[in-house]
Write a structure and sequence with these properties.
It is built from five helices and no strands. By secondary structure, it is mostly helical. The protein has a single domain, classed as Up-down Bundle (Four Helix Bundle (Hemerythrin (Met), subunit A)), CATH 1.20.120. It is a multi-pass membrane protein.
């Protein structure tokens, strides 16, 4: 089976969205590693009893990981039928996670809401996935 004949022609954009998300996760991980050194938080300790800013940096990464697998699944399902739309929605979500993290990095958890626009991308791929499921079931 030739994968290039099975996947939609614009699926390449989705692959670049996956790569963009990989870069974003790496960036968040590096920031946590640097914060561990700066605030002297040793492994395997997840959170500091003394340093709120470290906890904010750690939470930005942890929260992203908590939703990442679901996002990947929905992005992939949506992209099988709507590759360009899924890729745009995916890029919105990835970019929002950076905005979310940069807000959180201030040490003021309320500033993480600068990334709230990411729900457009997150729920967008979920809605597209529902559309794919309904099409497969012959509903429309």
């Amino acid at each position: 089976m030739d994968i290039l004949k099975v996947l939609p022609p614009n699926f390449g954009y989705v692959i670049f969205t996956y790569l963009y998300s990989w870069v974003m996760l790496g960036y968040l991980a590096v920031k946590v590693g640097a914060a561990r050194k700066k605030y002297d938080v040793k492994y395997p300790t997840m959170y500091s009893d003394k340093e709120q800013t470290f906890n904010c940096i750690q939470r930005a990464h942890q929260n992203t990981l908590e939703v990442y697998t679901q996002w990947l699944v929905f992005l992939t399902i949506a992209a099988l039928v709507y590759p360009l739309s899924a890729s745009v929605l995916g890029a919105i979500w990835v970019t929002s996670r950076l905005s979310y993290a940069w807000g959180y990095y201030t040490g003021d958890p309320s500033k993480r809401m600068k990334g709230a626009y990411g729900y457009i991308g997150y729920f967008g791929v979920i809605f597209l996935s529902i559309s794919v499921a309904l099409q497969l079931l012959g509903v429309f």
